[in-house]
């Protein structure tokens, strides 16, 4: 009688797992994106340091 409109235990666990897996995938994608940005920034800083080192070394 009181089960109308209420999600059953089996479906509530499925929904909970789907939300947990979706959150984990979202966090993983954010981590991968940040790692790629950090790698790109480190490469840019390395190139800038090499360029400034070469110009300073050539001027001396």
Description:
This protein is mostly helical. The protein is 85% helix and 0% strand. The protein contains one helix and no strands. It has one helix at residues 9-59. The longest helix has 51 residues, at 9-59. It is rod-shaped. The N and C termini lie far apart (89 Å). The model has no long low-confidence stretch (mean pLDDT 85). Keywords: Membrane, Transmembrane, Transmembrane helix.
Provide a short characterization of the protein structure.
The chain crosses the membrane at residues 15-32. The protein is mainly alpha-helical. The chain has one helix at 9-59.
Average of per-residue pLDDT values: 85
Count of strand segments: 0
Q: In terms of structural class, how would the helical and strand content be classed?
A: mainly alpha
Instruction: Give the overall form.
Output: rod-shaped
Which regions have little confidence, pLDDT < 50, spanning 5+ residues? none
Q: List the helices and strands in order.
A: H
Transmembrane segments: 15-32
Keywords: Membrane, Transmembrane, Transmembrane helix
């Amino acid at each position: 009688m009181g089960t109308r409109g209420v999600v059953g235990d089996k479906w509530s666990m499925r929904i909970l797992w789907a939300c947990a897996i979706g959150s984990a995938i979202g966090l993983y994608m954010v981590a991968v994106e940040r790692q790629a940005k950090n790698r790109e920034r480190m490469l840019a800083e390395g190139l800038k340091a090499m360029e400034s080192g070469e110009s300073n070394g050539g001027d001396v």
